[in-house]
């Protein structure tokens, strides 16, 4: 009998720019969080730029290892390098699922190890005295000052992210069990949580909403120099402007990551239990949680 010819494997080992764009769109469509989508898109674009900068024999494990060495030569942090490699691994898996890359090459890329993390970076955290200084500097009688103080009060008092802060609406702030809270807040990764609001932060929020005449829609909006509202919403990138201005008054670094964003969240007041009381946590050095005395001083 005549033997059947084995079917040829038409899966490629070299990805061109259209194939990389198709795989990138597949990766981005598989992500639900806008933040993760933005980070993965940036990481994949960085890899495509490096990959297409010179001719490559194949998209395989050796090429990804060379890319890791390139990232290390730029003296990037270990977390940043591992995040970039995670995006490249996801790109290889999507290319293999779409039939654009050999499964053996995708498996080899997935075995590329990340950079070993030795210890933990201390970061640039705000102390309790610095947090109080920021709040006191931001307070004033102008419309912008009332808005800035209310935003800082929610950042410090509730531990919100910047995207969560600028996306707050009046309907999100509700009273539950005789306490004010941000109900059903959709955060990073689609996680839903309810965040209690301290009394001093709620008073700062009421001062801003009453002065601006806001009854529905977005809470924090743009304010002109004459004190009039410009728009009904504020972009996420705008939230670093007023915090850097408050930092310059104090003489601190004007970095956005130092004063707002995740750095402010690390210094924010966390609520323990239903009693809405504040405790100081000394379990981890990265956590900075004001106690009852400090919270009462803000009232």
Brief account:
The protein is mainly α and 299 residues long.
What does this protein structure show overall?
The chain has 299 residues and is mostly helical. The chain has 2 domains: 94 residues, DNA polymerase, domain 1, CATH 1.10.150; 170 residues, hpI Integrase, Chain A (Orthogonal Bundle), CATH 1.10.443. It has 13 helices and 5 strands. β4 and β5 form a beta hairpin. α6 packs across α10. It is elongated.
Coarse structural class: mainly alpha
Helix and strand run: HHHHHHHHEEEHHHHEEH
CATH class of the largest domain: Mainly Alpha
CATH topology of the largest domain: hpI Integrase, Chain A
CATH H-level homologous superfamily name of the largest domain: Intergrase catalytic core
Helical content stands at: 40-55%
Strand content: 5-15%
**Which oligomeric form is depicted?**
single chain
- The averaged pLDDT comes out at 76
